[in-house]
Design goal:
It is a single chain. By secondary structure, this protein is an all-alpha fold. It has one domain (2-85). The chain is 75% helix and 0% strand. α1 crosses α2 (51-63). The longest helix has 41 residues, at 2-42. The protein is elongated and about 55 Å long. The termini are far apart. 12% of the residues are buried.
């Protein structure tokens, strides 16, 4: 009985880890796509300013944050900082 509970817990832990990995992947993908949209909208000339780098650069320009500040932000924090940018 205890072995079944332990293997069940392991299965639950595996499903949780898989779900967390999917959330992380999709968050990263959404930020990448939003960054590409921002780069196009803002007319960034550098080909390196795309994806998440465009998001970070945009936040630096808009809020006068330093590179250290935006690079210290997790993707979750970047997503939060970009909430008001939806639909622009």
């Amino acid at each position: 009985m205890a072995e079944t509970e332990q293997s069940s817990l392991t299965d639950e832990q595996k499903r949780l880890a898989e779900a967390e990995a999917q959330i992380t992947y999709h968050r990263s993908r959404v930020l990448t796509l939003r960054g590409d949209q921002i780069a196009k909208r803002e007319g960034y000339k550098s080909s390196e300013l795309c994806g998440i780098y465009a998001v970070r650069y945009y936040l630096m320009q808009k809020h006068h944050w330093t590179p250290a500040q935006v690079f210290a932000m997790s993707e979750e924090h970047l997503e939060f900082a970009m909430l008001e940018e939806r639909g622009k």
